[in-house]
Amino acid sequence: MDEGGSRIRRRVCVHKRNRPSLGIILAAPTAAELMPRDEEEEEEMVAGSPRRKTGGVQPVENNDSEEDMFGDYDSFAENSFLAQVDDLEQKYMQLPENRKHDTDFATENLCSESRQQKLSITTVGSFTELKTDEHTKNQSGHEDVSIERGADLLYEFPSSQVLYFENLQNSSNDFGDQSAKERDWNTSSPKMVNEELPHNSIEQFQQIDQASSQVRTSSDVNRRKSLKDHLKRTMTGNAKAQTPIFSRTKQLKETLLSEEINVAKETIESSSDDLGPFYSLPSKVRDLYVQFKGIEKLYEWQHTCLTLNSVQERKNLIYSLPTSGGKTLVAEILMLQELLCRHKDVLMILPYVAIVQEKISGLSSFGIELGFFVEEYAGSKGKFPPIKRREKKSLYIATIEKGHGLVNSLIETGRISSLGLVVVDELHMIGEGSRGAVLEMTLAKILYTSKTTQIIGMSATLNNVEDLQKFLHAEYYTNQFRPVELKEYLKINDAIYEVDSKAENGITFSRLLNYKYSDTLKKMDPDRLVALVTEVIPNYSCLVFCPTKKNCENVAEMICKFLSKEYLKHREKEKQELIKNLKNINSGNLCPILKRTIPLGIAYHHSGLTSDEKKLLEEAYSTGVLCLLTCTSTLAAGVNLPARRVILRAPYVAKEFLKRNQYKQMIGRAGRAGIDSTGESILILQEKDKQQVLELISRPLESCYSHLVQESSKGIQALFLSLIGLKIATNLGDIYHFMSGTFLGVQQKILLKEKSLQEITVESLRYLTEKGLLQKDTILTENGLIQKDVIYKSEEEFQYSFHITKLGKASFKGTIDLAYCDILYKDLKKGLEGLVLESLLHLIYLTTPYDMASQCDPDWMIYFRQFNQLSPAEQNAANLIGVSENYIGKKASGQAIKKKVDKDIINRLYLSFVLYTLLKETNIWSVSEKFNMPRGYIQNLLTAAATFSSCVLHFCEELEEFWVYKALLVELTKKLTYCVKAELIPLMEVTGVLEGRAKQLYNAGYKSLTHLANANPEVLIKTIDHLSRRQAKQIVSSAKMLLHEKADALQEEVEELLRLPSDFPGIVVSPMEKA
């Protein structure tokens, strides 16, 4: 309740209540009921009069007229509430016996009830609701007097009238002991009023008190008039009083939201068909979708999917629709149901860090408004196990790897049941390499350990759905809906064919390209790309997918050479501002290709760009400043950037022929909902590829297959290690039982031709034991205690147990690739012998990812130059690692080297030089020039190093001998994560704020998280260059969310410190409290 506001609040009735009519309540009493009473009884009857329900009443505008100032209360007009009081009093005054005695029977009942019902306030989320206690027997012993709930006397009265009745009862309850009553009023009522009402209301009620003392000396007629006068004066004073800050409109909305949440919760728990106002959610959620995303109405398929019986019964669900069909909205509504109605945590697994950050930004504003946390688990961010919250629930948005770590930590701490829902976007990725194996492990563990966690999977490209259904025990829903019609074309030479499944060979002739090409242009643009793009740009957007990164840059430059100068004028000012912002985020540097292409509205987009550069280019494209992007296939799987026309430069990704899934994802970007009426895709091909392309467009999507066996060190071996480490399954029988329920178990007949699943299980366990990650347990047989070194082919093997070693536990807790865990252990052990701490180089080497080192090809001259610039201490560190200056010098001069040296160590140290230079200079451009590497690659290296550093930290936490690394790696991980000056780190904690934006905010005076959380988005737009309103709101929402998370975590810590321990001696704890 807002400070200074009234502490008495009326309950807003949303649902219709049964109320007795005025005629019934005010009916003349029978002879048996005519006991001597005074006007307090009449007050009781007046209080029981019916009122209009207020749930649907519109907020009343300010009005100075007394006739209309009470909104939905009765007016003072004829036949009004007070007129009925007057008629009733006249009727009772005609009975002489009613004036002789004053038993205060009715008033006593009235006031005793009002005290019993005195403001039992509960909180639902952050909304307050008034509860009245059950009607009890009269305190005076009058058990024959009862009032129906619907006519509850003070149930819907304004606070001023409740206090007035109490005042009047206290002043007239006992004329024989007036001084005692005055003493009671002076000691109790004013204290209550002072505590519960604003100052102006206190003065009004003191005036009422004085007036009521005069009433006691008046005649019966005056006493009757005084009731009307007092009610009128009190209601008028109450209406004219200064309005509390907490407005009645806001109170109505919040109480309505509170009741809707309760209704939705009851609806879900009772499995009723009545879904409530917005798919079991408060109507406020619908309003927020209109406000934040402009979504006013759901598509028909979305409504159908949300109302499926399987969804209502909380069965696992897989649903598949074409790209841009609106799949994510369905998942979001289901997540909000879980968070708000069932009060369970939710995990959303997304494929890439950029998509995680985009989703965090989009949902943080919902979390702020609806009272739940949105937590990021990507890169090095994320706490294991997550903070346990008692009040608000959390939505964890994670990459595939971080989602796996989160599930492991919840299983380990026995909290997996707190996870009510897991949503997997791009479910088809379960069939893609090591990442697919990790996703499969995550889902298999959830299915095995929690029977209450629902799994929802979605994808645009699914084929063998039956296998996935069997694995996830899921229902399936599919629809071919697209908000914009998609037309597919093929271009062979100058002819364009439309893809038509009804045609004999799958295509029909559409048209010839009509564009005048000079001989020079024909040589420069043999595929007629200029002709295709100029049909749509600059008024519409276009994406050109290219096979390689270099091809993206070349195509962008080539198109620009043949565009007319008219293209320069299109949104010229905004394009100049974009160039200025690109320079600002890169310390004055700008890619020469972008410098030439952006003025014409064209840019390239691939992994060679930094995150800051990509973000600015994506924003410019989304707003129409840029009209064409030349890009690689990764854009199709990343952030959503639709276009009027999508052109595929060739049916290849790098040197591999295009897959059906990739093709569908790329062309799925064609057509922008709400902007375009149709979308077009054009695949350019040579005559030699025609047959393969015709097969491509007609064949079904590729099937998903388990990669647990193919990716053994990251797959099945890592799975067994974590199963035993988490004690999910510790003997061969349990492990085999678990494996039969995996995606691999479902597909074993297809995938396992040479060896059975049981044989692979036995072999993997033997490998882990030999590697020192698992240890065999001794078992008791009839012949005594035997150490089993061989797993026998008998029934005994299913009872044979394992336990995890310290190294094994460290490996699975740190999610270290098992191919490198023993190498990491040796490197850390060797580092203890002589860790050089005069610089960060030695420590950086220990956290440089092994897998990136194996792909590195050093430039030996640059290597030698950088080696010579090292300080003596740094050269000493290099020698301890095992790399000498002599070796690098010989490689640089091209001399033959007989001595055998570990190439991975050499490459890893080279990458350590790159990272070390970057941390010192914090400028990717200068480091890119020094090492002749793409700046995007350097940034990817930095992100991978930050993630691996976090993994090494968790690895060291499990091994006491590496205690010295713990504090060192915490700081190093933070440096690698942000790689900026220390003062910018608090701003970069906010999702979506990268280095360039952090510098802008810092220079504008926003120097902390608190500053951002309290910022006004409208002021930010004016202060920060090239910041849209949507981005400003997302930054402020994300900052608020982060601030709330930190505050809540501190509050939880305080409460935990002050709470009496459950194992405190002499304290008996009930099972409920333990839970």
Automatic annotation (TrEMBL):
The keyword DNA-binding applies. It catalyses: Couples ATP hydrolysis with the unwinding of duplex DNA by translocating in the 3'-5' direction; ATP + H2O = ADP + phosphate + H(+). It is found in: Chromosome; Nucleus. One of its GO terms (biological process) is positive regulation of double-strand break repair via homologous recombination. Keywords: ATP-binding, Chromosome, DNA damage, DNA repair, DNA-binding, Helicase, Hydrolase, Isomerase, Nucleotide-binding, Nucleus. One of its GO terms (molecular function) is DNA binding. The gene is HELQ. Residues 528-720 form the Helicase C-terminal domain. This is Helicase POLQ-like. Its main location: nucleus. Residues 308-480 form the Helicase ATP-binding domain. Single-stranded 3'-5' DNA helicase that plays a key role in homology-driven double-strand break (DSB) repair. Involved in different DSB repair mechanisms that are guided by annealing of extensive stretches of complementary bases at break ends, such as microhomology-mediated end-joining (MMEJ), single-strand annealing (SSA) or synthesis-dependent strand annealing (SDSA). Possesses both DNA unwinding and annealing activities. Forms a complex with RAD51, stimulating HELQ DNA helicase activity and ability to unwing DNA. Efficiently unwinds substrates containing 3' overhangs or a D-loop. SMART domains: DEXDc (SM00487), HELICc (SM00490).
